[in-house]
Amino acid sequence: FSCQDKNLPPVSEKPITKEIQPKDLKSFEANPKAQYKAKFADGKDFDSYDYKGRKLVFSFFSYTHRDAKDMLKSLMKLKEYEQNYNFRIFAVSINSGKNAEVQKFLQDNHIDLPLIFDDANLSLAAQLNIVSEVTFVGVNQNHEPSFGVKQYVFNKNPDDEKTLLAYIKQGLSIQEYHSTQPRYGMYPKAPDF
Predict the structure, then answer these.
(1) Distance between CA 183 and CA 99 in Å, rounded?
(2) 124, HSE (Cβ side, Cα atoms, 13 Å)
(3) Cβ-count burial of 102 within 10 angstroms (0-12 exposed, 13-18 middle, 19+ buried)?
(4) pLDDT digit string, tens, across residues 82-113
(5) Model-level pTM?
């Protein structure tokens, strides 16, 4: 994409940057009756129906994978938008039976995302066609898969994370306004117009 074009291409189009290839981005077939179930770290049930009308981002990871920390840290940068843009990000561990180790990994790396554990059969990963140990998928308000990556490979170049976050923001309909004009007044909570 060009410097003037602020909109990133859809998942199936040309590479976003030279480092990020189309094979790294994932395309999906929509399933309008999608319901996703798993367990939270505290043992409570996770059911996507409890988040009806919200976009969800499932960030799958194995705590032993070298790229897990980088991906989760990148996604943490989007938490500030969750309330205003009606979405939630979840860390989804594929390390069944390793609850203590996974929670320690998140705590040691200061990752504050709701944690769900996929079951031993990786049912949630199978339902979302996950094929990598470190990846994420976003679902729209109807919980149809709508964007994601096949494998997280975006920490090899300093601009990769920035490009990736712009891609996710597009998938979540996050629009940021950056005025070049000075702002006046004492209205820190007022939106930009």
Answers:
(1) 48
(2) 29
(3) buried
(4) 999 999 999 999 998 999 999 999 999 999 99
(5) 0.75
